[in-house]
Amino acid sequence: MLFFTQCFGAVLDLIHLRFQHYKAKRVFSAAGQLVCVVNPTHSLKYAPTRCAAGQTSAEQGVLPPCHNHEAVHDPQLVPCTCPLFSCPWQGHLEVVVSHLRQTHRINILQGAEIVFLATDMHLPAPTDWIIMHSCLGHQFLLVLRKQEKYEGHPQFFATMMLIGTPTQADNFTYRLELNRNQRRLKWEATPRSVLECVDSVISDGDCLVLNTSLAQLFSDNGSLAIGIAITTSKVHNTEGEM
Amino acid sequence: MLFFTQCFGAVLDLIHLRFQHYKAKRVFSAAGQLVCVVNPTHSLKYAPTRCAAGQTSAEQGVLPPCHNHEAVHDPQLVPCTCPLFSCPWQGHLEVVVSHLRQTHRINILQGAEIVFLATDMHLPAPTDWIIMHSCLGHQFLLVLRKQEKYEGHPQFFATMMLIGTPTQADNFTYRLELNRNQRRLKWEATPRSVLECVDSVISDGDCLVLNTSLAQLFSDNGSLAIGIAITTSKVHNTEGEM
Question: Domain Seven-in-absentia protein TRAF-like, which positions (chains A, B) (predicted)?
Answer without folding.
Answer: 134-228
